[in-house]
């Protein structure tokens, strides 16, 4: 991934690229493992964010269908909910008859 980043953003000349590749190959195995741990944690964070956004989108679509139009304020409040609360909302939203049920 690092060579891809360098290639995309740094635009090295031939000599600089040769030095960079030489240095990159010289990275100790332990350092490579640390880099991979960082990348893995970034990926996990990205997955969590994507999951949360997906849940928000689905819940808002279901609420809009169930209750007609959910106001901007309520949508904003829903977007700020942690994943656990979003999941709880998903479990009960089909029981709602009106917007006041959602507010409660």
Q: Would you mind describing this structure in some detail?
A:
By secondary structure, the protein is an all-alpha fold. It is 79% helix and 0% strand. It is built from six helices and no strands. It has helices at residues 2-9, 14-25, 29-67, 72-79, 83-92, 99-103. Helix 3 (29-67) runs parallel beside helix 5 (83-92). The radius of gyration is 23 Å and the shape is elongated. The model has no long low-confidence stretch (mean pLDDT 80).
Q: First CA to last CA: what distance?
A: 47 Å
- Please report the total strand number as a whole number: 0
Give the overall shape: elongated
Low-confidence stretches: none
Q: What amount of the residues lies in strands?
A: under 5%
Helix tally equals 6
Derived from helix and strand composition plus strand pairing, the structural class reads mainly alpha
Helical coverage, percent range: over 70%
Biggest β-sheet, characterized?
none
């Amino acid at each position: 991934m690092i060579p891809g980043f360098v290639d995309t953003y740094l635009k090295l000349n031939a000599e600089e690229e040769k030095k960079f590749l030489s240095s990159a190959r010289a990275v100790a195995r332990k350092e490579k493992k640390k880099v991979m741990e960082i990348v893995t944690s970034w990926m996990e964070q990205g997955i969590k964010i994507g999951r949360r956004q997906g849940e928000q989108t689905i819940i808002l679509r279901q609420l809009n269908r169930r209750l007609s139009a959910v106001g901007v304020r309520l949508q904003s409040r829903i977007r700020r909910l942690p994943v656990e609360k979003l999941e709880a909302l998903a479990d009960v939203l089909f029981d709602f008859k009106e917007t006041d049920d959602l507010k409660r």
